[in-house]
Design brief:
The protein is of the alpha/beta class. It contains 9 helices and 12 strands. The protein has a 10-stranded mixed beta sheet, sandwiched between helices. A two-stranded antiparallel ribbon has the order 5-6. A hairpin with a 2-residue loop joins strand 11 and strand 12. The radius of gyration is 20 Å and the shape is globular. The chain starts with 9 loop residues before the first helix and ends with a strand.
Amino acid sequence: MSRRVRFGIEKLDQMLGGGLLPGTLTVVYGATGIGKTHLGLTFTWAGERYERARGLILDMTARGDSQRHDEYAKRLFGWELGRWDHAVRPGQQNPFPPATHLERMRYCHEFDYGGRLEEYQVVRSGDREFRRDWLAAYAQRWKAVLPFFYFHFASGVKRIVVDGVDPTGSPHESMQLYIFEELYRKIIHQDGEILGMEILIPVWRHRDFIDRHRYDHREVATLLLVTTEETLLDDLIARKVGEGDIGASANTILLMGRRMGQGQVGRALHVAKHRGSACSDEIAGYTITDRGLTFL
């Protein structure tokens, strides 16, 4: 069997035929409060066990309330999760983050744009295009995110969790999904050498570092957590794929929802899609405890 990217949760890894496939995108759909963030943190933490490198968390929430990743990480794993704040400027003599900084700062929240694409656009000559003021601000945030991914990938990180994507009736109009697809194509699955040359300027000064820290982006697995309006698992299973729905191109889809039975409302998970691998058809009940997500 080819290498798998494991959650470290025996039941879930079994349901996935051993785990996720390297280099692929997994989308987790579920209502707020169902346990997606717990699952995501478990996935990132498992990187320490399987690849000797904890994963990254990119928080895209545009809501006022916090996802509380740092609190959950400390309670579940004793993990002091820090926020990325290392800036890289062209011509900088020493653009590299200290090793201790790199190890701890695995959380980033640069993109807090929500709503629809049209809210950030204007109409010119009959066509919609992004406002220039927004493009300028977006470009600065993009520059801040580039080194977050590059330096961690260069140090051996192979897992990413993207959290905070809000419900949308029109996925093709979602600003959050637009930004994610840009990140996925242009950063996460960009050639490591090209990414290094884009960040470390002048390239000739940092060529040795770029050459010594090459990595294969095809080994990086991404977990995208998407909040839905549907709360019941049955409704999620019956949910139609909308235009521009990111799940259509994902390799794997996990559904997390409520399930009613025997006078109780519980939680359950189902693997709706897992290309290139055997997977379970079962609906597996789970609960959220002080230790995180536990299957029944």
